[in-house]
Fold each of these.
Amino acid sequence: QVQLVESGGGLVQPGGSLRLSCAASGFTVSSYVMSWYRQGVGQERGLVASIIRDELNYADSVKGRFTISRDNDKNTVYLQMDSLKPEDTALYYCKATRLFTEYWGQGTQVTVSL
């Protein structure tokens, strides 16, 4: 059974850091395009970062602050988030894509506030 489970979200102060994890089962993350998306209240879901083999891509709003990585042994994808800002507050989702197949996780909430 295919499953993506995100974890690591929470409440953090501006300037702080969080590391999100996306644990996959039922498929191999190294064979898929793995991405992180986020959706704030009243906003559309948007791409944050993706990893395709060794190619990394980031939204302009997070470049230099967020880092996506993949651990093939653990079949897990991570999103290291540093220098967090209030505008980073959102529900963060993990997505796996290959050809016409895609899987989504249930999301993990990140709140950046004093």
Note: The chain has a mean pLDDT of 97.
Amino acid sequence: QVQLVESGGGLVQAGGSLRLSCVASSTSFSINFMGWYRQAPGKQRELVAFSTSGGYTNYADSVRGRFTISRDKNTVYLQMNNLQPEDTGVYYCAADLTLGRFWGQGTQVTVSS
């Protein structure tokens, strides 16, 4: 079983920054896709950014230019700058292994105006 442990959420004022981290417990299996999703109250979960083992990254239009995803082996980071109230939500880490997709428990990000 693979566990994903997230950290780094919190409360920040608009214009501020946060850095999220997600560590995958297993090192026995290669991880191709690692990404961040978020879910705001009353809304569906959406993809924010992802990174592949080949170094490809992509972002949702709403965060491009403000968020940066990076990866070091089984750890993925999300640097979030110029945060806005609409970025508020629970942020989930996801990882795709040959065993399937695994999810973290989520970390709350709240941006006050």
Note: The mean pLDDT is 94.
Amino acid sequence: QVQLVESGGGLVQPGGSLRLSCAASGFTLGDYVIGWFRQAPGKEREAVSCISNSDGSTYYTDSVKGRFAISRDNTRNTVYLQMISLKPEDTAVYSCAAINFRGRMTQAMCVLGSWWTDWGQGTQVTVSS
């Protein structure tokens, strides 16, 4: 049974940093593409970042480029999202998603919520002074 558990969220001041973790169980992480999504109150869910399992390619939404970094440790079955220079507009529930996919991950795949097959419950990130 595929299970994804996010952790690392919390309250941080503007300009601060957090590292989110997505712990995977019930499957081999190396077989899956992983994405991070976020949803703020009253807003649609958006893809934040994705990382391929085939070539390590990544995608970032424009608003987080240069501030967020996605990485994966297949030996620990964990994917990370390092976030720096956090802004109040980054406040949201962050969730990771997974799909068993072998091929070239594209931006179109990454941002399409319906493409993903498995989701975690999410972790709250609040950026406020």
Note: The mean pLDDT is 96.
